Records
---
Amino acid sequence: MDKIKALVEEALKLAKKEGADAAEVVASMTQGFTANIRLGEVDTIEYHRDNGVDITVYRDNCQGSTSTTDISPQAIENAVKKACLIAKVTGADPCHGLADEKLLAKKYPNLDLNHPWGIDVPQAIELAKECEDAGRKFNPQITNSEGASVSTYDGKFIYGNTNNFVEGYASTRHSINCVLLAEGDHNKERDYEFSVARDAAELWTPKFIGEEAARKTIARLNGKKLSTRQTPVIFSPRVASGLLGNFIAAIRGSNIYRKSSFLLDALGHKIFPEFITIIEDPLIPKALGSAPFDHEGVATKKKNVIEKGILQNYVLDTYSARKLGLQTTGNSGGVHNLEIIPTAGNLDELLKKMGTGLLVTEVMGQGVNIVTGDYSRGASGFWIENGQIQYPVHEITIAGNLKDMFLNLVAAGNDVDKRGGILSGSLLLENMTVAGE
């Protein structure tokens, strides 16, 4: 960390020496490996060790940016000089510049993000084999595998600017995953399971991951098509997080000031039902989305994005905030541990509440228009009657408009999937169009 901090400080000094009014530097160093096996044999071993430095300078409201993976003193000096040259020929924009100095992080809570995993490649291979073996032996219908992998990552991140801010933190991320194929009477299906955590001690066991991958794959066999209809829909947690991602895209500052969102002028207005609250909490120890400050050094803090259904904040970095005449929300680089607060029980309870409808477990395609809110994606899942799964369904399309989908949310389950930066349980929607046969 000291080495990277010194590199950042030197780059900032060079920028001022070259005539920049202000400058900021982001430096990162990552290392780790991934062991991939398939059908019990080693497929690939991938080592990664990456360096990256992004340099941005400001001069007379003009901006110049460069990046380099070479962290030698000469390479850094060349990158700074090129950034300054770029700033001389770009157009001026009064919204360019560093974040307000009073918003920069002053305190750094211990978020417990750094847990190196003392595992070597042979050990990782054995864990991956154990995972795949558990899945392949789970049921004779598991006939093939796309493999299992064990991955470990160790990263160091430093941000500095010419407002005397140079800080950073170390973090880790480890994972195990397995992808299996099953064969039924008339078709083949694939599905997967994975576990990811800052601390390897909190990963699910390889046996559990493999068996869950097998169970999910077998459950998809011998699916049926549905006729076109209007029906209630439940998004499973791993699909629901994507739906919340669409919401975040619609309130991102860049889309708001460009007027390319269906939620223009929505601040202070009802977006969800009154019983829905969505929070962002960047300061959860060990969480995958946690960070003490954003990519501009702005202190992160817990806040309500939606409170009683009403939009409280856009998602802003410094530039987009200035374009809108607002203040940054500390979201340069994205959201941190965004979570919809549960209003109901687990998936089984939501199925009973829905009665008859569609449980969506996978979506495909890119059919989401953030400008209009139109939503249309290929999907698969299960048909539900009397609160019970009847049979898997495939080759269908679910469609609606995000504005209506958000307002027609009936319940948010407590089966929250915490394997990412956007956290959600199952979401029950009152009605969607399902296009099938």
Note: The longest strand covers residues 142-161.
---
Amino acid sequence: MQDLFIRTGELLLPSAGVDPTAWACVACDQYTSQPQYWREAAALVGDRPSALQLILPEAMLDEAGTRIPDIHRAMRDALAQGTLTPGVKDGFILTERATDAGKRLGIVALMDLDGYDYRAGSQTLVRATEGTIVERIPPRVAVRRGAALELSHVLLLMDDPLMRVVEPLYARRDRLTLLYDFPLMMGGGHLRGYAVTDPADVEGVFAALRALKERQSDGLLFAVGDGNHSLAAAKAFWEEIRPSLSPAGQADHPARLAMVELENIHDGALVFEPIHRVLCGADGDVLLAEMAAYARRKGWTLATSDGGQPIRVAFGGKAAVLSVGGSPFPLAVGTLQAFLDDWLPDHPGASLDYVHGDDTALSLADA
């Protein structure tokens, strides 16, 4: 529906005979500082058809020049050889992913990129939830320029406390067609998908979304919970080609759409974890001194005592918890990001990565 920027569409799935566990892989923005994960996944897949052959992991952005032509070729081959087939021709897919946290539900749909803007201060219906690292966008746009397929790991989060969008469909899943049911590779959990094609079911989703939109006071319906950079790349590519299209061409061009999954932030299995900042190419002791100088310039206090916003720092076997006082940002992550945003442009040899998991962050800090 145009007012919601959500559409039904044709969604392709692996054909019979394709191993779904080998086909489905982790999102391209995961394990960005752990290339070993991707090597292990490639070894597990071997020469079987896999989405690994159709994506550019962010851990390998420096190989974009050689990988992207192979990605485009693999996409064309997947279509020509019948590796993929329409699972849904005009509808959604209801998903159930079982993990240690429980069963997380979602609806796979298409999103109109005209309803989204990743830039800070955006007031669009769909908005980013983290700052965009612009250096990560050009390689992803290059993938999209010659792509025959749209792959996505973008999660759009809804604030639906009454659980009226996804959950009613799941309660009726026994009368939906089961499309797939298989374990994910490398401990990713278990995945099931159901076709949502009945007009009454489709309209029920749209009606629930319209009611949800009417209850929003700030015009925000969806927050990008994962895949910020992939969605930003889709938007950048659409803005690149849109001026060359007629109004009619713009209306139905496939680049205007991105595949997304709608999820409810009130889903009990949707676990929110800290996103740690990993800074490479910097001396830890010098960085701490520059953080202290930055805090003084801003009129903040920075100490190792309690009472302020805690920021845990670790490097080279050292660890400390800094306490920041007087920051205008309500959360410690905002305070830290403000410093890094000011600091990075003056240090071109440094790079910033975002990782989940305390153990992963600490192991990288000691590397």
Note: The chain has a mean pLDDT of 91.
---
Amino acid sequence: MSRRRFLFVFLIGILLYLLILIRLFYLQVVKGEYYQDLAKRNYIRRRVLYAQRGNITDRNGNLLAYDVPKHYLMLDYQKLEDKNELEEVLNNIKAIFGKTVEAKMSKAIEPIVLFRLETQEELDRFYNNAYNLPGVFTSVVPERRYPFGELFCHVIGYTSLPDKRIFEKFKRRIGPQSLVGMSGLEKSQDEKLLGWVGTEEIVVNAAGRIVRTIGESKPSMGFSLKISLDVRLQAICKEVFESSRQKAGGIIVIDPRNGEVLALYSHPVFNPERLRENWDNLIKDPLAPLLNRVLNARYPPASVVKPALGVALLEKGVSAREKVNCKGHME
């Protein structure tokens, strides 16, 4: 290699080296604070993967209760610098979604729920503006559905978020937003219906998008229940009771061959999917629509005792056509 060519290659190498040094100086010194802030916003988040509760079906396989996934907007206080950043986030949420959210700076470890994203358009709006919402992310949480509404409200019951006592009882199986049974089969069969939550460790970038998943344990759905009730008979009971114009009472239909309960209807009723918004009116209602009158009310036996007395008389040899004067006792 000639000396001139060697000097040319040497100068090119020196120039490239200087360019690299200048670039490093620019990135680490001039723009260092900017990229440091971006690096802080790329963080590892451990989130709960919520499990579906088991389905509940009637004897013919009709779904009486099941879960559907819903997206919720969550806030993680641990990813905010101070209350000024929180106020900025809340103002941005109002500007993006048109919703006013109240929250105070906290040291809470668990994220809090802000509100539910009702449509795909709202979900897209979040992702398009996530860079202005540090500490805010979306989480998929199952929501309970009762397709027959009032028809099975007392039998199936309803669910709600766990209180401290229930959370301690099922803490290895549920998360803060898990639904637990509060009445009816949802409560009595909670051990079976509850699933097992999973966990996921993800790396999230400054725009709030998932960069990669580090680790994951998948959630497990709860066991499903198939009960002896029949949707058609339950609907007939409701129709018959409403046509009677009685304000309160109940109907139970049992198969005498095996004791299976085919229908169990209590009146008045409530809509388990609108329980929260109607709660105050329900608990103040003098007819107590939350009470399952078939199982929990007290009534005098009245004519219910007559079949037993009839069988007893027949066993004593009294003819079905013979009249018996009941004096209140029999010797």
Note: DSSP finds twelve helices and twelve strands in the chain.
---
Amino acid sequence: MSLVFLGTSDFAAAILEQLARSEDQRPALVLTRPDRASGRGRRLRSPPVAERARELGLALAQPESVNGAEARALIAAGETSTVVVCAFGALIKEPLLSDYELVNVHPSLLPRWRGAAPIERALMAGDARSGVSIMKLTAGLDDGPVCLTGEEHIAPDDDYASLSARLQRLGGELLLRALRERPPFRPQKPDGTTYAQKIEPADRLLDPGRAAAELERAVRALHPHIGARAALADGTLLGVERARLLDPDSQAADAELLAGAASSPPGLIALDGRLALVCAGGALELLVVKPAGGRAMDAAAYLRGRPRPGRL
């Protein structure tokens, strides 16, 4: 009996590689989404899972719909016993849900952060811990029974890249254990459910009407794959790659910048080669920014191209 893998994202590609390099759980078939046009040139790009499957020499198919007859026939042809799903990005429907055991790798401690963006939402919320749950896929939104979980501490300086890398390793280890040992699935706890909604444009915008601590977490949660943005006075959006909270107790330079921020309305200001976002609660220093259509650079380099200090 063979194993089929369904996935799309970079996170899923990392899990796929751990399966492929195991001695006993190498997938016989990988299914992912079709290539899509992206970027300014609208060039066709393969999903990360497709690229990784080719590198690993795995059989690959990219049907338009995983629920269609073509995909179901491909899965059935291999006398499949188990289908592993990880960040596939499309709804899986009947009859697939009933025809196979669908084991899902979800990067959160279910029932907290069911949904599309669990890693980002955990960072945005300031959670102290995250983790991975191995669950049985059902018709509901990540509400199926769970057989294994593992926790991961969230460090104060974690961003999406650093946290997801650790969760990928943990997820692969838990998945291999689940496939080999077949621990029982148990219903999720009825309390503590939260939903990780998809990241929308409004989530990316650093609104100075919010607390600086919230915005600092948002910058880390969206780096480097999505990116936060701050609005300049002319309406242009400035990408924000790195930022930190200004702390008046940490050093005199921060106190000086905060003093300047205290006399300014909410928004971006420049002072002595430094860039800050004045917020309703505190201020955020922008360390690395990315002008529209440009490359990422430190704030000092960005400000050298501005006509004068003050409000931006």
Note: Residues 160-181 form the longest helix (22 residues).
